[in-house]
Amino acid sequence: MDDEPSTRIFIKTGAGRAALARRSATGRARTALILVNGQDSVQALRAKLGPEADALIGELQRCGLVELLRPLPQAAALPSLQAPPPPRMDESGRLEPLKRDAMVRLAPHFGPDVPIVAASLLAATESAAYNMALGKIEARLALYLGKARAAQVLAGLRG
């Protein structure tokens, strides 16, 4: 086969799957049939099967055990069915008071390292990122205070 057909992809037919189940295919033909997976190109199959790959695949195709995978229509030709995602909202103004309160509550526990511990919390501009960062800080605080006490320290700070 020349270079263009080497990019072709083959799949097993119903008869091919049945032949594998019945173990009616034997030897190198069975190996080739097993390796045809609907993902590997003929070029990849050549690397696995060696120089006789083209002949083996051709024989499997003539016997009706494999068939050429039909390419799907180009995605560019299909109209987009998804609406664009909504623009991300910057909630910094609403989160700033919560961030300040968190820093005050964390200071007795982390001392001068509070800005380091709370770096991701301070960088958050959305509620989801803020709450995720707060959850990580709560888990870290729970190591020292226990889960219940850590939850009490950070109560009311969820955004």
Strand order of the largest sheet: 1-2
By DSSP (H or I, 4+ residues per run), the number of helices equals 9
Poorly predicted sequence stretches spanning 5 or more consecutive residues: none
Helix fraction?
Answer: 55-70%
Please give the alpha-carbon distance between the first and last residues: 62 Å
Molecular shape: elongated
Number of strands: 2
Beta-strand residue percentage: under 5%
Secondary-structure content class: mainly alpha
- Helix and strand run: EHHHHEHHHHH
The Rg value, from CA coordinates, equals: 30 Å
User: How would a crystallographer describe the biggest sheet?
Assistant: 2 strands, antiparallel
pLDDT averaged over residues:
85
